[in-house]
Structures are given as C-alpha cells and as structure tokens.
Design goal:
243 residues, alpha/beta, Rossmann fold, Helicase, Ruva Protein, domain 3, 2 domains, 6-stranded mixed sheet, 4-stranded antiparallel sheet, 8 helices, globular
C-alpha cells in the first residue's frame, strides 16, 4: 500500500496561552482531496504550517511520502505546492515573471519554466494580467497568481489554506477544476475552507477541527452540511465544558 502523500502523527504544538494543537493525527492519501474545516482559531492553518515545515512540533512527527520532514531533500520539496495565509509575489515583477521564477525555484530549466508559466496562465485565466505588476493586481487576481505558483509544477502534495479567498465565481470554478485534475493525476491535496458548499463539491473526506483537535469527520454528501458541522462543534464544546 502506498504511503500517504502527507501525514501528521500525534502532533502537538502549543503557543502562549495554551492555544495550539493537541495531538493531531491526519493523513492525505494519494489522489485524495482532504478538506479541513473549523471555526476561526480552530488550528487549521497551524496544521498546514506544520505539514510544510514552517513550524516545528513540540512532539509528534510530520511526514511527506513517508519521509520525516527533517530528512526531506530539496528535490522532494520541489514536489510540494502550497498557498498558506496569503499569496506571495514580487510586487515589482509582473505576473508572468513571478510564475517563471516560481518554476525556476523548483528546479525547472528556463524554457520549461516559461512553458509551465504559460500553461497555468491559461488554466487560471490570467492572460489579461500576465504583464501587470503583482502589486497592481486586484486581490482576486493576486490570489490567482499565488494559486498559479502553487500549482504550475503539478506537485504531488498540494496544501491550500482558504484558496477561494477573494476569488470571483469564475475563479472559484477554475480553481475547482484545477484541483480535481491534479487529484485525478495522483496528487494528495489538503485544503481548508469556510465555504462548506464548495468543500462538498470537491472533497473526498472532510475533517472537522475544534480547539486544536480533530473532532470528527463529515460525509461530503450530507444534505445539510452546515448544520452537521455546527452540531459537531457545539457537541464538542459542551463535552469539554463538563467537569
């Protein structure tokens, strides 16, 4: 059986005040879109930062394709794509140049990087803005640029934190299709979102976070997903308040 694309094993990471993660177990399988949902402050972004090595756990372990993060080589990291918290781009460079640089940083030769950039420009409908400096892009188009940088090299692990932020309906559809294509090609995808209806369209599995813990799973086919989500969170809150 193939190793999960990504895995957290009993990961604990606490911050001042006692907030953080409290022993999280989570996997992202080959070809799976795993959605992580929760209220603000539940710990979703912390999970993603730990999975990407942006934070170190106090205890427990994170692995990508079976390899502990501490043992990951540069070539392996080149197979990861992510957009966490905000789209990063060089403000004085145009969108096309930013995308080419992103591909080059992942080891692509210049000609291949140029081709990768052009492909994702078409895929995410960025052609009209390809020559516009990143700092002049609207929030939505800057988000598309960040998503393009995360997806252009067809990574085997994709981690996206609230990827539909600032996107218009057309952008949401383009992103949805891009994610589904990569999952069908074998990528493992972890995505967080506040938009439960959009999550239900793409997710194979939905994990619910509350107060730094995974408290359960939701079936994407649930008729009233929002009601089921809040019922699970409120039940967990009541349980933890009991003496």
């Amino acid at each position: 059986m193939a190793e999960p694309r990504a895995e957290l094993r009993a990961v604990r990471r606490l911050f001042s005040g006692g907030v953080g993660l409290h022993g999280v177990d989570l996997t992202v399988e080959v070809g799976e879109i795993h959605a992580l949902v929760g209220l603000n402050g539940a710990g979703k972004t912390t999970v993603m930062r730990l999975m990407l090595g942006m934070l170190r756990p106090d205890s427990g372990e994170a692995r990508i394709d079976g390899t502990p993060l501490a043992e990951m080589r540069r070539r392996a990291w080149a197979g990861v794509g992510h957009l966490v918290e905000q789209a990063l781009a060089y403000g004085e460079l145009d969108a096309r140049t930013n995308l080419r640089l992103s591909a080059r940083l992942r080891g692509a030769p210049a000609a291949e990087a140029a081709a990768m950039a052009e492909a994702v420009i078409v895929e995410l409908d960025l052609a009209r803005y390809a020559g516009v400096r990143a700092r002049r892009l609207s929030l939505g188009n800057r988000q598309r640029l960040g998503l393009g940088a995360a997806l252009l090299h067809h990574p085997q692990l994709i981690v996206l934190d609230e990827p539909t932020n600032a996107l218009d309906p057309a952008g949401v559809i383009l992103l949805r299709e891009a994610i589904l294509r990569r999952a069908r090609a074998g990528a493992g995808i972890l995505v967080s979102s506040h938009h439960l209806d959009e999550v239900a369209r793409i997710a194979d599995r939905i994990s619910v976070m509350n107060d730094g813990r995974i408290i359960g799973q939701l079936d994407p086919a649930t008729v009233d997903l929002e009601r089921a989500f809040f019922a699970m969170v409120h039940a967990d809150d009541r349980t933890r308040r009991q003496p």
